[in-house]
Design brief:
The protein is α+β, with helices and mostly antiparallel strands. 15% of the residues lie in helices and 32% in strands. The structure holds zinc ion. Zinc ion (ZN) binds next to loops.
């Protein structure tokens, strides 16, 4: 099992979400909970069935809309 810090490092470096339990990339996005400062994205691993949440934090605001081609 990856620690939260290890998982974050692996995800940022690889650009892909891994299962923290078994390292599989075969994860499915579930519900997303949007808060004022944080978003929680639910994932389920299709390989081992492990469920986990990815936590996203508020970073900045930028002008524009989601469909205006602001490729992150
Ligand atoms: Zn897994």
């Amino acid at each position: 099992m990856l620690s939260s810090d290890e998982w974050k490092k692996r995800t940022v470096e690889g650009g892909v979400v891994l299962c923290p339990s078994c390292d599989s990339q075969n994860v499915t996005m579930g519900a997303c909970a949007v808060g004022a400062y944080t978003n929680y994205q639910e994932y389920v691993c299709e390989n081992c069935g492990y469920e986990f949440l990815a936590m996203f934090c508020l970073v900045a605001c930028v002008p524009g809309g989601i469909n205006e081609g602001n490729d992150a």
